[in-house]
Amino acid sequence: MLVLTRKVGETIWVGDNVEIVITEIKGDQIKIGIHAPQSIEIVRGELRTEVSEANTEAVIQNLNIFKKKK
Fold it and tell me: Which residues form a coiled coil (predicted)?
């Protein structure tokens, strides 16, 4: 993991086409802006975890239903 220190207005580039901009710092919260092509999916980490957990739960439920039909 790369850890950087940035100030408001400073940027970070990921590859050639993703720019992350620090827009505001208030206490322990940082607001960032992300400039990226529409083809790149950007999802908050907690949402990605929730979706993954929901998908896993759905698969388990489907497997249980399938097992009951036998």
Answer: none
The answer to whether residues 23 and 32 touch, using CB atoms and an 8 Å cutoff, is yes
Q: Which residue has the tokens 């086409």?
A: 17
Which token pair is 26? 């208030």
Q: How far apart are CA 60 and CA 53, in angstroms?
A: 11
Q: β-strand 18-26 against 11-14: which pairing, if any? A: antiparallel
- pLDDT of the chain, 70 residues: tens digit per residue: 999 999 999 999 999 999 999 999 999 999 999 999 999 999 898 888 888 777 787 777 777 776 766 5
